[in-house]
Write a structure and sequence with these properties.
With 376 residues, the protein is of the alpha/beta class. It has a single domain, classed as Aldolase class I (TIM Barrel, Alpha-Beta Barrel). It is built from 11 helices and 14 strands. It has an 8-stranded parallel beta barrel, surrounded by 6 helices. Strands 1-2 form a two-stranded antiparallel sheet. It is globular. The structure holds flavin mononucleotide. The site of flavin mononucleotide has 22 residues, from β4. Flavin mononucleotide (FMN) binds next to β4.
């Protein structure tokens, strides 16, 4: 591979952004922001270590207090949180790598333990039937029936997205990714399984899309559309998702988003993070047919498939998640055909401190035998 022209490692520019390659670091929650939910020096070090990516998308970041639903993940609603994130963007920009912030509201996937005893909010009062959730006490608890948002409250949540998008700008990010995937609040609105509303935000696919449309427009008040990305997961089952009309829904979503000329549409097309098995999975080729802008593929991609997707014109960018955890210099490894470190054990994914986070060696260090305890 190293003697051939690499499409994956070729640069890409748009709207003043300069990506050294097409490898995107996929958003990954790592729970290192402390109970105060403020990004910090440790996180700055972690992201800077991974700055060989063409673009970094931050871990999911709560837009408001009501959005919180993961123990020790960061937020972006307060001045202190903006200051914390500035440390990260400064460190990453020191390597000339652009970085987007992922805007997150967990909706029904949260728990009243995170919300001062109030139930989580959702489009409809339909309980998450999936695995238990690790709450703020660190304890695993069953999901609760959420409270359906009133119609005028939905507009207030849209304002929270606008505020978070503004804060992302103040914190020095190059853009935002709206997290409309993986069964969190926006996905709950998009999908018929979780949205049984009878107002203008429910029922038809046009209505179920309205919440995301208003969020995109709120972000456009702050950012040029070429600095706004959207993430969707048409095939996913994570967070008890999967609706029989998934193909109709996500085809419509992609068609509508096409008109906004966004930075990219990030589609979790791969099946290695859970698949709902309600029919044939939706593919990047299929999205190419209905979406005219930049497309990012994700999930389970290895070097060869990522290369092929871009060479075949099915994607412009490929987001890579888990391999970045234990290979901080992943892109150099791709470029030099170097072997990978052992995958990190899942028990360090969300384990609060430096161990299993910033202690994975780059290739040269690994050659010198500096193996992280987290991969032994
Ligand atoms: C530890 C971990 C945390 C994740 N956190 C997020 C997140 O905050 N936001 C998001 O959109 N996806 C999240 N994901 C999903 C990844 O972005 C990606 O879609 C998934 O890992 C599949 O890509 P991969 O096969 O390259 O790892 C997470 C995945 C992992 C393993």
């Amino acid at each position: 591979m190293s003697n051939q022209i690499s499409h994956l490692l070729s640069p890409l520019q748009w709207d003043g952004l300069s990506l050294a390659n097409r490898v995107v670091m996929s958003p990954m929650t790592r729970a290192r922001a402390g109970e105060e939910m403020i990004a910090n020096e440790l996180m700055a070090k972690y992201y800077a270590q991974r700055s060989s990516a063409g673009l970094i998308i931050s871990e999911g970041t709560f837009i408001s207090k009501e959005a919180v639903g993961w123990w020790q993940a960061p937020g972006i609603w307060s001045d202190e949180q903006v200051t914390g994130w500035k440390k990260v963007t400064t460190a990453v920009h020191g390597h000339d790598t652009p970085m987007f912030l992922q805007l997150w509201h967990t909706g029904r996937a949260s728990h009243s333990d995170f919300l001062d005893g109030e139930p989580p909010v959702a489009p409809s009062a339909i309980r998450h039937a999936g695995d238990k959730i690790r709450t703020s006490s660190g304890e695993k608890k069953a999901h609760e029936t959420p409270r359906a948002l009133e119609t005028d409250e939905v507009r207030r949540v849209v304002d929270d997205y606008r505020n978070a998008a503004e804060n992302a700008k103040l914190a020095g990010f190059d853009g935002v990714e709206i997290h409309a995937a993986n069964g969190y609040l926006i996905d709950q609105f998009l999908q018929s399984k979780t949205n049984h509303r009878v107002d203008q935000y429910g029922g038809t696919v046009e209505n179920r899309f309205r919440f995301l449309r208003e969020i995109v427009e709120a972000c456009k008040d702050v950012w040029p559309s070429q600095r706004i990305g959207v993430r969707i997961s048409p095939n996913g089952s994570f967070n008890d998702m999967g609706s029989p009309d998934y193909r109709e829904t996500f085809t419509y979503v992609a068609e509508q988003l096409s008109d906004y000329e966004l930075a990219f549409l990030d589609v979790i097309d791969g099946l290695k993070f859970g698949f709902h098995k309600l029919g044939e999975p939706m593919t990047l080729e299929e999205f190419r047919g209905v979406y005219s802008g930049r497309l990012m593929g994700n999930c389970g991609y290895e070097r060869e498939d990522a290369e092929r997707r871009i060479a075949d014109g099915h994607a412009d960018l490929i987001a890579i998640g888990r391999p970045f955890i234990s290979n901080p210099d992943l892109v150099e490894r791709f470029a030099n055909d170097w072997e990978f470190n052992e995958p990190a054990k899942a028990d360090v994914w969300y384990s609060f401190d430096a161990k299993g986070y910033v202690d994975f060696p780059n290739y040269e260090e690994a050659q010198q035998g500096e193996l992280s305890e987290s991969v032994r």
